[in-house]
From TrEMBL:
It comes from Falsigemmobacter faecalis. The lineage of its organism: Bacteria, Pseudomonadati, Pseudomonadota, Alphaproteobacteria, Rhodobacterales. This is DUF177 domain-containing protein. Pfam families: YceD. InterPro entries: YceD.
């Protein structure tokens, strides 16, 4: 997203006091949509809305509950033709006070991947980008796109037939030969 948009959607956690929830709604403009589409490798993002609430959770923690809605255009994995998609996904995060990221080179992923350490400021643009990236279809296919079947053969070689590759094909051929 454009740099000016990213800075404007950071909310300091110190501002989230009391039992009041703070609502937000983010709708990037055309430059922001174009920059985000380029960052995520999309052909286009036609519309994008991220709305929700930040609210206290317990004594020192903060919860984010929201919804992301987007109209995107991806490339077909077979033909590279444009594939439009409508994204509508819930977004949940729980920012825990005193929680730290593991400092080891390798660490196990926790079962609850919505829990994160409580930062000084919650970057709603980063949450939006992550939520959109995770909600995109992994392998978009255009209508009518056929699966490609490729064979690489040395000159003069015959293609391998599926029946000949099966484990018991040789035994079946031997049995047929012995029965003659």
């Amino acid at each position: 997203m454009a740099a000016e948009e990213i800075r404007s959607n950071r909310i300091r956690t110190a501002e989230l006091t009391g039992n009041r929830k703070r609502s937000f709604k983010i709708r990037p403009g055309k430059p922001g949509l174009a920059a985000l589409a380029a960052e995520l490798g999309l052909q286009a993002i036609k519309d994008l809305t991220f709305k929700g609430d930040l609210m206290p959770a317990g004594r020192d923690d903060v919860a984010l509950e929201g919804q992301i809605e987007a109209d995107v255009v991806q490339s077909c994995v077979v033909t590279l033709a444009p594939v439009p998609a409508r994204i509508k996904a819930p977004v949940r995060r729980l920012y825990i006070s005193g929680m730290a990221y593991p400092e080891a080179d390798e660490a196990e992923m926790p079962e609850d991947d919505t829990r994160e350490p409580l930062p000084d400021a919650i970057d709603l643009d980063a949450v939006l980008i992550e939520a959109l990236a995770l909600a995109l279809p992994d392998y978009p296919r255009a209508a009518g796109a056929e699966t490609l079947v490729l064979e690489a053969l040395p000159p003069g070689a015959e293609p391998i037939e599926e029946e000949k590759v099966k484990p018991f094909a040789a035994l079946a051929a031997l049995k047929a030969k012995l029965e003659k």
